[in-house]
Each structure stands twice: as structure tokens, then as C-alpha cells.
Request: fold
Amino acid sequence: MSEIDKNSSKVKGKKTFSKTNHGSKFIKNKSNKSVNRTKKDKDFVKGQVKSSSEHKEGKKKKKEESEPMEVDHASDLRPGEITHGQGQKAHQKRQTKGGKDDENKKPRKVQFSKGKKGNFTKEPGSSSDKRNLKRKRTEDDEGSKPKKTKMADSQLTKKEIEKKRKMSKKNYELGSRAKGLWEQLRRFDLMAEKRQKVSQELFDLVKTRCAVLIFAHDTSRVIQSLFKYGSKEHRDAIYNELKDHLLLIIKSKYAKFFVKKALKYGKKEQRDDIFRKLSGHYKKLLKHKEAGRLVEIIYNDFANASLRRTITEEFYGKSFRVFKSGDVKTLADVIQANPTHREMLLSSLKNTLSTLTTKSLLEHSVVHHLFLEYFSNADDAMRTDMIETAREGLIHMLHTRDGSRVAMIGLWHGTSKDRKVIVKTFKTYVAKICKEEYGHLVMLALFDVVDDTKLIQKAILDELIQSIDELVQDVHGRKVLHYLLSPRDPLHFHPEIVTVLQQGDGNAHSKKEPEIRRRELNQYISGPLLQWIVGHYKDIGNDGALHHLTNAIIKHAVGDKSPAMTSIAEMAAVPFAPNSEFHVVDNASGNMNLQHLIKDDVVRFKSGEKVLFSKILLDTVSPDNMISWMACNRGCFVLICLFETELPEVASRLKMVLADSKGTLKKHKFPGAQILLKKLTS
Reply:
């Protein structure tokens, strides 16, 4: 007996329980013969057609035998599923139709094959499989037209899908034609006559549609180029069409650049109209992701002093507008005219600044000016609270004049904890800050006030030492190195810079003596700078700034200077020829560096230092090479400096070297030779 026969039972007049995918159902055929469906024969009625060829063949052979049959509880079965009792009913009908009486005959067994995951499927060609096949089309259906099928997107290439998407847009044809003309218009080598013709054709195409095209990423550039290269009439027409949408345009990711083009290429009346339409909205626009950058451009590049005041006044609050009069121009003027309302005015500005401390907003120079106005007028308590709020974002304000002043105030008047936080935010950006026009001033203020020199060494100087090769090539980077060697030296720093830095002297939070702090920083940086001279002096060439830095390092650094001095002397020891391309003795900056090093030996000798550059120079340069210096005017002045040091050992050795060169000096007519001759004969 097969597996199906074992699990099936024929009990007359009794319902059996069977599970389907719709829940528990009782299935009973008309002959009161029920079937108890177990888990194994659950898929008894899953008729699967495995091939279309067998499908058609089965329909042809059994067309006359197959008839539609009624299925009870069809909604409770899966598609194509029938019960075991329904299969027996169909079998009895076929027997009756054929004129055979087979009531006592056993049901025909159905062959199953085991498929994937243990499911049972009927073999192709079985009777139940053939009954579930679709009917052929009738002769009436053959005359009907077949349905059109669309190609699936998966069969299209990525380029075709993108083109199909673009073609579905409303202004696709207009945009395609406009971009074709734009490709010609934006060429730099286009002739003036041709450009005028193309711009006119493009204007005729897009006029009255600019308000729609300006917001798309591609057609927005078309309108911008037409405004740039078009005629005066074209600009006026485009602006008149778009002027009522400026507040939307300035917030658009792509259309906002039209406002920039209008400010740059438009008439003065158009620029003034833009400023009027944006007036009263600057505070909201500055916080907008797209519009904020354009407000920054307006403030820095197009606004005069009056417009800048108009922009900043929107951030002072309503109380400022109440107390403002015709002669009042700044917040300080309002506070001076209304001293009793000072706290109210600053409190309103403080609330505004508290919402502008995010990174994206702290990069705007408008915000830098507002912070400087607040710090300049606030008392110590209010200033301390604001420093604590903004200390982590000060690094984003160093690239402007006002922003650098705000950061310097934060260092001057911040607590030790505030300074520590500010210093740690500078990590990984030390070289960049040192090379900025205003940022390097913040670094100088940091060296003046932070007592924790160990923190500076780890967070700032270690990174600075790794970037010495980069900093010595930058004018502001060299200022930082000069300040570590000789702070506020008038030879290197302008009096105005010194005046600004003096504002931080005597602050309430710096306890260490300034001289001790400077000496500790100098000792830490001296070794790497002296080592830099040893490895790089031969590559300096005729760079006067680096020769100047070299002289400052030798003069102010602490430690063993003899290796650095020897490297400089070795450059001078090269044989000199009058027509040589470069020689440190005949070079203007190199010659001045040698003279300064020789003159500084007087101070070193008086201070008790034993390492003198004059002695190292005489030991390194051979007598013949030193005599060859007399062939040029600058070489003679180096020898004159050696005489003027009045160091006993140096002067006596030099006279012995040049004793037989008086005749050579008489032949030269340049001033250096005549002065040197007098020194030798005296």
C-alpha cells in the first residue's frame, strides 16, 4: 500500500479534520467519503506544471475527458489545490461517463516525486495535473489582438533609464534645446557677434519661463550664463521676471547662484533692490543652509559700511531698535547713550549668539563681528559665561580679523579650564593656524598667557616641530618661530601687533612670570631649530627671509650652536669665483647674515660664551679661499667685520692670512677693498 493509502481513511458519514493555509477546515465529498490529510500528504493537491510542452500535450490528449469540476471551499485552498475527496469524485464521473460500474474498485494511486525542501509534487502528465491546465483559446479569441507588453526597466541600461526619467519631466524639450545653446554661449573662444546671436536665440527660447527653469540644477546654469553674457536688455528682462521670487531663489541649492551673478553683473539699481528685498530677513537667512553662504558674500564683498550695520542690527534684538537714534551707529554708541539699559541690550544679543554657536554658523564673519561687539561691551561675568559657551568653536573663527580678536579675548580672559579646552581644539590644525594671516596672532597670544607649558609642548609645539620645513617657507609661519625665539622683538614685529598683544598682559588668570614662560618655550624649540639649520642651510640659497631666520636662531636659541655655525661656515668655505652663479659671500642676504653673525660674537664674548662664529669661520675656510673673497666688494666687507670685532685671537689670525695681499687690494677700486687696505696697514 502506498504512503497516501496508509494515511487516508474511508469512514462513511464522518467528517475529518484537515489543515489548509487558511486555517482548519472540514472537507467532505458527496459520497460521504472523507479524507484525513496528514502533514506528508498536505501537498497532495499542489498541481505543478513543469514544462509548457507537456502542458500542451496533455491538453490535446485529454481535452474530451477533462471537464470543469466544482470545488468546495475554494477560497480556503491555495491556487490550483483540490482535496482528495474531489479527486475521487472526478474519477467516479469519468467512470460513469465511460459506462463502467466500478463502485467496488479501489481508487487509482497517484505517483509523487519528492522535490526541494521535502515537498511532494505530482509527476507531469497525471490526471489532476491535466485537469488544472488552462484551456486553449477559442476561435473567437484567435481573432482578437494580443496585448502590448512594456519592456521592464530591468532590461534597460542605466543610461536609458535616466533618459526615460528625464523625458517624463514637463520641460524636457525646452531644457534640452536651452542647454544646447548654453554649451555654445559659455565657450571662452566664442566670437562677439556669434555670442550675441546665440544669446538672443537663447533669450527668445527661455523668456517668460525663467521662474520655472531657475530652480533646476542644469537649466539654472543656463539662466546664469545668459545673465552674464547677455545684453543689457536681456539682464533687465530676466531680473524683472525673477525679482519677486528672490527669497525663494536665495534658499535654493542651485538658484542661489543667480543672486550672486545679479550682484556682480547687474546694475546698481538691481543690487539695491536685492538689498531692500532681503532687508529684515538676514537673521533667518544666515541660519539657512544655502542662504547663509550668500549672506556672507553680500556682507564681505558687496556691502558698504551702512549696509553692514543694517545686517548686524537685525541680530541686536528689538530693544536696540527702540533706543537707536539717528546719530547712533554701533552697539557701543547705544549703550553709551543709554547706560541704564546696557544689561538688557547685551542680554538680548547674548540670547542671539547662543543660537549661532554651531560650526557652520561660526564660520561666517557676520557672527565674528557680533561676538566681538559683545565681548567689547560685556562685563567680566558676562564675558566669562560667553567664553565658556563658545570656547569649543573658537577654532572656526580664526580666519578673519574679528574672529581672531574674539579667540584672543577668549585666551586672555578665560579660566585655566577654558584655555585648556581651546588649546586642545587646535590639535591637528597647528600648522594651518600658524600660516593664516590672522590665525597666527592667536598662536602668539596663546604663548603669552597659558601657564601650562607642558600642555603647550604636547599639544602645540610637538606638532609645530614636525612642520618646521613647511612653516619656514611661509611669512606668517616664520613670525610664530620668531616669537618663540624673541617675543615682541621690534626687529620682527610691527608696533601695532605688539600693542594688540599687550592687551592680554596682567590678566586675572595668568600666574606664572612671563619671562619664565618664554624661557621654557624657547628651550623646547631651540634644539629642533638648530638641527634644521644643520640639515637645510645649504638649500636656503638667496632667500633673504630664511637667512634672517637663521641669524635669529643662532642669536636667541639655547644649547650647542657649534654644529649650526659650522654648517654656515662650510657654505662660505666654497672657493669663490667672480663669475660664479651663487656664493654666500657675494649674495646680498647671505652676506648680511654673515656680517650679523660676526658682529654678534662681541655680545657672546662679553656674556662668557666660548663658541664664537668668527673662530669657527677662520677654522673652516682655508686661507686661499678667504683671500679669494677680496675679489668682490661684499667679500671685503665680511673681512672688515672680522677686524672690527676686536677679538684678539680673530684679528691677529686674520692679519697673518692677509699679510701678503696688500698688492692685490691696491689693484681694486671698489670701497670695500680700500677700507680693508686701511685696516691692514693700521
